[in-house]
Amino acid sequence: MIIPKDNGFFKNFQGHDRFDVPEPVYRVTGGPGGESYLILGSDKTALFDCGMACFSRELICNIHEVLDPLGRKPDYILMSHSHYDHIGALPYILREWPEARVCGAAKCAKVFCSEEAKATIEELGNTARNVYGCDCPPVTAEGLRIDIILEDGDEISLGDETVRFYETKGHTDCSAAYMILPQKILFASESASQLGGPGDISTSCLKSFEQSIRSAEKMAALGAEYIICMHYGVIPQSYNEQFFTDYIEEAEWEWGLIKRCIKLGLTDEEVSDVHDIFYWNERKALAHPYEAHHLNTMIIIKRVRKEMEEENG
Questions:
Q1: In angstroms, rounded to a whole number, what is the distance separating the alpha carbons of residues 107 and 82?
Q2: DSSP assignment of 259-272
Q3: CA 206, 210, 211, 215 torsion-angle sign
Q4: Residues forming a β-bridge with 164
Q5: For the whole model, what pTM was predicted?
Q6: Deepest in the core among 28, 56, 73, 92, taking most CB within 10 A?
Q7: Whole-number Å distance between alpha carbons of 92 and 143
Q8: What is the tally of structural domains in the chain?
C-alpha cells in the first residue's frame, strides 16, 4: 500500500486514528487532496471518490493491492461532486477499469460535459501537479463521465450492503453524501464536512451558506454510526452529534463576516484579504494550492454579494 505522507495539516483527536475506517471500507487514497475509499460489499465493490489526477498511479496501485487478492474489481465509482481534487483521477481509473459504472448527481454529469469546466479541472490539476512536484504527464480531464444519475434517496446494492445517495447542496449543486447500510457509515458531503482536527472546522459554501446549513441539518438527522469526512477521515464516534452543530456555527460566523465586509463597502478583493486573515495560513497551504483557495473564496464572496443585492431589491 502506498500511504500518502502526513504533511502535518490534519490533526488527530486524542486517542483516535482518523484512518481507522470501519469494515467494509478500505482507505486507498493516493495522495494529498480528496480521500478515496473502497467499499467491499458481499457481491459488488464501489470506489468512493478518486482524488487528484497527479496521484492516480498511487491510487490505482492501492486499489489493485486490495482487490487483486480477492479477484475483484471496482463495479461502481461514487462521485461526491465535480471538483478536481475529488474527480481528477477518474479518467485514469476508467482506463484501468473501463467497465466500472460511474454514479453521481445530474449536475455532475452536466459539468463533465462542459468544455469550460474540464479546462478548469485540468488547470487546477496541473497546478497541483507542479506544487507537489509529481513526476507524471500533464493532467487531462478527457474521459470524465457519469453512467448512473442518482436522485435523493436512490440506492445501489452491493449485496448484503446498500449505498444510499443524499443530495446535499451548498458546496456545489452536485454535492452528495452516501450512507452505507446496514452499518450506517456516512461519507459526509463537503457541503458540511470541512474538518482539520479538534476545534478546527471551516466551510466551503461555494453555492450557498443557507443550503450548506440545511445539508448539515439533513446529515445530522441520519443518525450515522460512523462519519467519514472527505478530506479528514473518520471522526470519533463521541463527536458525531456535536460535529454538525459546530459546522453550522462556523458557517453562520463566516457568512456574517463576509456580509459585514460587503456592507462596509469593500471590493471583492478587499473582502478576500480580510477573509484570508481568518481562513488562510501556512498549515492550509500544506493541503492545497493558494490559487484554488483564492478562486473558491472569490466565488463565495460574489455569491453572497449577489444574495444581498437580491434581498435589497
A1: 9
A2: HHHHHTT--HHHHH
A3: positive
A4: 155, 179
A5: 0.93
A6: 28
A7: 8
A8: 1
- H or E element, residue 286: none
Listed in sequence order, the DSSP H helices in 103-206 are: 106-112, 115-131
C-alpha cell belonging to residue 280: 488562510
**17 φψ region: left (φ > 0), alpha (ψ -120 to 50), beta (else):** beta
Q: Measure the CA–CA gap between 200 and 231, rounded to whole angstroms.
A: 13
Give the pLDDT confidence of 104-163 residue by residue, as tens digits: 999 999 999 999 999 999 999 999 999 888 988 899 999 999 999 999 999 999 999 999
Mean pLDDT of the chain: 94
Is the distance from CB of 138 to CB of 129 less than 8 angstroms? yes
CATH of residue 166's domain is: 3.60.15.10
Which residues lie below 8 Å from residue 240, measured CB to CB, with a gap of 6+?
Answer: 224, 225, 227
Rounded CA-CA distance 263/166 in Å is 35
> 228 has which bridge partners?
187, 234
**pLDDT interval class at 16 (50, 70, 90):** very high
Show Cβ contacts of residue 188 under 8 Å, excluding neighbours closer than 6 positions. Answer: 177, 219, 227, 228, 229, 230
Q: Is residue 189 part of a domain?
A: yes
Range of the domain at 110: 25-250
Give a yes or no: residue 127 inside a domain. Answer: yes
